[in-house]
Design a protein that fits this description.
The chain has about 200 residues and is α/β, with parallel strands linked by helices. Helix content is about 45%, strand content about 15%. Helix 2 packs parallel to helix 3, helix 4 packs across helix 5 and helix 6 packs across helix 7. The relative contact order is 0.23.
């Protein structure tokens, strides 16, 4: 079966370069335009009988709703698809992060797992994302669309593909970009396309 992993459209915090994590930050007008552009493309390539599952955070769920309207299906919310929590780093500038937590920032840059209260570690993100996507793939009778976030989407795909979490073996998805995976059975996945954005979405960013 085919599984599409989609990141939400642009938010104000994306524009400002701030970590969002568990914070519920809405789409910008440009982000909504990105969602519409991506939905139109997916409407042409996903095919009939699709299932759409989404993070409950509004930036993802609103993106999923636009996609669902194009595919003729209502999205279903799943807590396991939400973004990684960044604890006290959410909503502050990179300069503020570095000033307050220099050692943790260094650790984050080196291997992505700082010891910081409230920061969800790779293993936790991978476990819940893989569990959710595998379960939704089991249930779906046709193509599956997963609408999620930059970090959780990347780590989830690394988990499905059996890639190390020590390094960014995959890049993050851009706003409203998507990746397509093929699933033959549980644990047997191939990445066919990665980080695809339609031209209208790119120009709206």
């Amino acid at each position: 079966m085919r599984v599409f992993v989609v990141r939400h459209g642009q938010t104000t915090w994306n524009v400002e370069g701030l970590l969002q994590g568990a914070s519920d930050v809405p789409l910008t007008e440009a982000g909504r335009a990105q969602a519409v552009a991506t939905a139109r493309v997916l409407g042409r390539i996903v095919g009939p009988g699709a299932t759409v599952a989404s993070s409950p955070l509004s930036r993802a769920l609103d993106t999923a709703t636009v996609i669902g309207e194009q595919l003729g299906v209502a999205p279903v919310s799943d807590e396991r698809l939400r973004e990684r929590a960044y604890g006290p780093w959410e909503g502050i500038t990179p300069e503020e992060r570095l000033a307050g937590w220099p050692d943790e920032v260094r650790s984050w840059r080196e291997h992505g797992s700082p010891h910081l209260e409230g920061f969800e570690q790779h293993d936790s993100v991978r476990a819940r994302m893989v569990e959710a996507i595998e379960e939704w793939a089991d249930r779906a009778s046709g193509p599956l669309v997963i609408v999620t976030h930059g970090s959780s989407g990347r780590v989830g795909m690394q988990g499905l593909l059996g890639l190390s979490l020590e390094h960014r073996t995959l890049g993050n998805l851009g706003n409203a970009a998507w990746s397509r995976l093929a699933r033959r059975s549980r644990g047997d996945w191939t990445l066919e396309r990665h980080n695809i954005s339609p031209e209208p979405a790119s120009s709206a960013a």
